[in-house]
Write a structure and sequence with these properties.
It is a single chain. The chain is an alpha/beta fold and about 450 residues long. The strands form six sheets. Strands 1, 2, 3, 4, 5, 6, 17 and 20 form an eight-stranded mixed sheet that branches. A five-stranded parallel sheet has the order 8-15-9-10-11, with helices on one face. A five-stranded antiparallel sheet has the order 21-22-25-24-23. Helix 1 runs parallel beside helix 7. Helices cover about 30% and strands about 25% of the residues. The chain has three domains: about 210 residues, FAD/NAD(P)-binding domain; about 120 residues, 3-Layer(bba) Sandwich (FAD/NAD(P)-binding domain); about 110 residues, Enolase-like, domain 1 (2-Layer Sandwich), CATH 3.30.390. It is globular, with a radius of gyration of 23 Å.
Length: about 450
């Protein structure tokens, strides 16, 4: 059968591209070997954020409810039920995957369950048949690099296997430095587990501004999370003895080791030579591979690990196929982390601005003086603007706040139209809201913040 587009993989990159392709009249097939929604929907973004919300509520009820004037319960009897929180996450996943299947049907997208093999620049073998298309989009995602060590196999848990019915032990170690690793260690800390983070490098959140990375590191340490830097990513120097991970003078209790190492692209089998470097498919500015009719979007091309960026790439490719040529500017896509408080960033980091030789200014406003944050009992954090001194253009925004991952959308909007700090300062925000920190940081850049 002939199609306009064949998409391999139904994660946030693939399914968004498929729906958009159907909407603009392209005859589309999407191939999925496992579950519709991919990693993000089934065992990544959605399940993890669901259980994090459960943990945040648990902490607030147990440790803060009385200060809000809520009485009549015994704090000692309040506990956290992992399996119930996972069941709640499962129910959300089922609703969302059902929604995607509905949208496939609504927009005329054919879903094919099976493992795809690329035969030529226009043909794919799947489900015992050969299908053809003018364009092929690879959206197969990525997977954690495995830990190659002598540690017991039953000690190590892959993230794809984490969100299941299980007993959660008291001593947990997470290996990684990315946002997922940070979210996991804080989640387990919130439900009062003893947590250690093993970092294969010198910095957590390697894509974040150093200021943000250092701030979050100190938050984790203050909450009692142990962090060990510069570990071998395969933990070859570690032994497992009497319930402890041991390496030289390092000794940390461990009953579960969660692997959140760097990810590598899942490359589909192919009879043609598609360029791959460092575990990812190489693409150009329009996300084309070295084969002009084949594109690669999402994690598999290594440009980003964030679901919303994968979706944006999917939309970009469908637009390109339809003759709409635009430039992708990854600096205008937000980075987000669902910690407590949440963390978000967009634009250039301070180091990048320095390296570009730009004369710049940093303007920061703390949540400690924000009325809404104080009423909610979450006034730890800040808003931070990086702007150039010549024109006042906003070059980067960083937020640490309870709803930073939502608030960053405002920063994305004003950076999209190249706004200046004068525009930010003049934008009136409702009071009381946490978003008032944007106006205050803008005023600080122009002259002086009102409440500082």
């Amino acid at each position: 059968m002939n199609y306009d587009v064949i998409i391999i993989g139904s994660g946030p990159a693939g399914y968004v591209a498929a729906i958009r392709a159907g909407q603009v009249g392209l005859k589309t097939a999407i191939i999925e070997k496992d579950k519709v929604g991919g990693m993000c929907l089934n065992w990544g973004c959605i399940p993890s954020k669901s259980v994090i919300e459960s943990a945040k509520l648990y902490k607030k009820i147990k440790h803060e409810a009385s200060s809000f004037g809520i009485t009549g319960f015994d704090e000692k009897n309040i506990g956290f039920d992992w399996n119930r929180s996972v069941k709640r996450a499962d129910s959300i996943v089922k609703k969302l995957t059902a929604g995607i299947n509905f949208l496939f049907k609504k927009n005329g997208v054919e879903l094919i369950i099976g493992t795809a093999k690329i035969i030529s620049e226009n043909t794919v073998w799947v489900d015992n048949r050969l299908i053809e298309a003018k364009n092929i989009i690879i959206a197969t995602g990525s997977d954690q690099e495995k830990i190659h060590s002598s540690l017991p196999d039953n000690l190590i848990v892959e993230i794809s296997q984490l969100f299941k019915d299980r007993q959660i032990p008291g001593n947990i170690v997470v290996l990684g430095q990315n946002t997922v690793a940070i979210e996991l260690v804080q989640f387990f800390n919130l439900i009062e587990k003893n947590v250690t983070l093993l970092v294969p490098g010198k910095k957590i959140m390697p894509m974040a501004d150093n200021y943000l990375s250092e701030y979050v590191k100190n938050l984790l340490l203050k909450s009692g999370i142990k962090i060990i830097f510069d570990v071998d990513p395969d933990l070859k120097n570690f032994e497992y003895t009497e319930g402890n991970l041991v390496s030289g003078e390092i000794k940390t209790p461990c009953e579960m080791l969660i692997n959140s190492r760097t990810r590598k692209g899942i490359i589909p089998e192919s009879d043609i030579n598609i360029n791959v470097e460092n575990g990812f498919i190489v693409t150009d500015e329009h996300l084309r591979t070295n084969i002009p009719s084949i594109f690669a979007i999402g994690d598999v091309n290594g440009k980003s690990y964030f679901a919303h960026i994968a979706s944006a790439e999917g939309l970009h490719v469908i637009n390109y196929i339809k003759g709409v040529e635009e430039k992708i500017n990854f600096k205008k896509y937000p980075l987000n982390m669902y910690t407590v408080p949440e963390v978000a960033q967009i634009g250039y980091t301070e180091n990048e601005i320095k390296e570009n030789g730009t004369d710049y200014k940093v303007s920061e406003f703390s949540l400690s003086a924000n009325g809404k944050a104080m009423t909610e009992g979450d006034n730890i954090g800040f808003g931070r603007l990086l702007s150039d001194n010549k024109y006042g253009e906003v070059l980067g925004v960083q937020i640490v706040a309870p709803h930073a991952t939502d608030m960053i959308a405002e920063a994305a909007a004003f950076m999209q139209v190249e706004s200046t700090v004068y525009d930010v300062a003049k934008t009136v925000h409702a009071h009381p809201t946490i978003s008032e920190i944007f106006m205050e940081a803008g005023l600080e850049a122009v002259d002086k913040a009102i409440h500082k």
